Amino acid sequence: MDNLVSYDDPMSAEAVGMHMPAMVTLDDLATMNAADPNGHRYETSPQGVLSVMPPADSEHARIASRLFAWLIMAGWPAEQVLQVAGIRIPGPGRDGGRIPDLSVWSKVPPREVWLSVAELLLVVEIVSPGSEAMDEVTKRHEYASAGISQYWVVDRDAAQTVTLYQLSSESYTERAKMPLAWLLQTSPSDHLV
Question: Which residues neighbour 16 within 8 Å (Cβ) at sequence distance 6 or greater?
Answer without folding.
Answer: 5
